[in-house]
Write a structure and sequence with these properties.
219 residues; mainly beta; Porin; eight-stranded antiparallel β-barrel; 3 helices; elongated
């Protein structure tokens, strides 16, 4: 895209009619929707035409079963993944309309609990009637959040509007802890191997995508 097209696109965004979006009609707002935090809600307060503060919260739980087959380990598991977070977000509206840049910090609720039961093979050794629990959590108890998005109003002539965001959350990676509850204790060296293979399976994820879509109401 050449400089002329870039300038034209910027002018189009800046000139989007404020009355069409009804940005700033109300000093407070309420939003609900879905995001990579789960079912999400926020309460907002407009400080001025360019700045809005929000308290954002979301949560969800997902369960699944499967088989870990990674390097030196083969084991069946059942896991529960809990996602979510809560914290303040500041929205900057550079054109004093619905387009926004958002930054904040969320108290992390991303964690997973997994249980490995039955026959487990670790580094060539088979363990019958094993019972091993694994717990994964983000290394950052507070996850920084950056996103770009839009928040409008006056949907079908009502006080409702649409909003969406896309960005990232910084997790700092994940930490794994292992607890052996097997009838016959598994050697510590093999538990270390299992923990390493779990880490290899999930990868060194330091950034998670943040995507949200929902409805807003200003009042």
């Amino acid at each position: 895209m050449n400089a002329t097209l870039k300038a034209a696109a910027l002018a189009l965004i800046a000139a989007t009619p404020l009355h069409a979006q009804n940005f700033g009609d109300g000093q407070m707002g309420l939003g609900v929707g879905l995001s990579t935090l789960g079912v999400t809600g926020d309460l907002s307060y407009q400080l001025d035409p360019t700045l809005t503060v929000r308290m954002l919260a979301g949560a969800a739980s997902i369960s699944r079963s499967g088989t870990l087959d990674e390097d030196d380990t083969t084991a069946d598991y059942r896991a529960t993944l809990r996602i979510g977070g809560i914290g303040p977000v500041v929205d900057y509206h550079p054109f004093e309309n619905g387009w926004r840049l958002s930054g904040g910090a969320l108290l992390s609720n991303y964690r997973a609990n997994a249980r490995f039961t039955g026959e487990i093979e670790i580094d060539g050794t088979e363990y019958e009637d094993a019972d091993v629990r694994a717990r994964l959590r983000t290394r950052n108890s507070v996850m920084p959040k950056l996103a770009v998005g839009y928040s409008g109003a006056n949907l079908f002539g009502s006080s409702l509007g649409l909003s969406f965001d896309a960005g990232v959350l910084y997790t700092g990676g994940f930490r794994t802890t292992i607890t052996d509850r097997s009838a016959d204790a598994i050697p510590e060296a093999d538990l270390t191997t299992l923990r390493r293979d779990i880490d290899d399976a999930i990868g060194n994820v330091r950034f998670l995508p943040y995507v949200s879509a929902g409805l807003r109401m200003n009042f």
